[in-house]
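Deliverable D5.2: sample structural annotation.
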Amino acid sequence: MSLYRNSAWFLKGLTEFTKGAFLSASKNFVEKDLETSVAGRSFMITGANSGIGKATAMAIAKKGGTIHMVCRNKDKAEEARAEIVKESGNKEIYVHILDLSETKKVWEFAESFKKKYKTLNVLINNAGCLMTKREVNGEGLEKSFASNSLAVYILIKRLIPLLEKSPDPRVITVSSGGMLVQKLRTGNLQSQRGRYDGTMVFAQNKRQQVVMTEQFAKAHPNIHFSVMHPGWVDTPNRQMVSAHLPLAWTHSSQLEDQKFMSVMEDLAKSFQPH
């Protein structure tokens, strides 16, 4: 089954994740879809100083949005902020320094943010961490899981009250098509058993993000939750696609999904500052 999943994913990638696929899909792009103002709306973007996160921040800044850049490296974050302000002319860009692999600090950040700011319209979980070997943080958690899964869970969970008070609230999580080769597993969240394969651990984290999104969406229908493979980041007319490859047996049961969320809640609470 692993060979099948990998082969099916490869074929899907050839048809959907390549430049050729972009050129084909771009024929249906509607430029007017991007002609919108987000003035007065606030956006939190993790990993906003480079790559997709920076491009997202730049695009939103140009459309008048207030941006909270959540970044690990202060120098890189400030440099990116200066560039965004200069190019967009928008000064409502704020930098917050946070290492998402430090679980207690994620808690502290979310709580302090709620106290300081009155509104948050959109949370964009963009930052990602792919480890080449198993490493643990100072709290004993495997870093990839701590950054990609637990931090995302805590940010969403703790910021929901602020989002629910804000107009048209949304949570967007940047997952990866790599999650298609993984079925949710709750028995080895810390990757303590077996050989550590950073790419597969990352893919498992991304599957966890998809399950999290689905479960949060059910529990909070007044917030629009989305999870996506970044793909063509300037595509305005995205389409819903399956979260599973055909015949790949990656579906988890409702009981498994609920168990995962329960484990995440208990784990998150165990690191809650007192």
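Annotation notes: The chain has a mean pLDDT of 89. DSSP finds eight helices and six strands in the chain.
The annotation will be released with the project's public dataset once the embargo ends.
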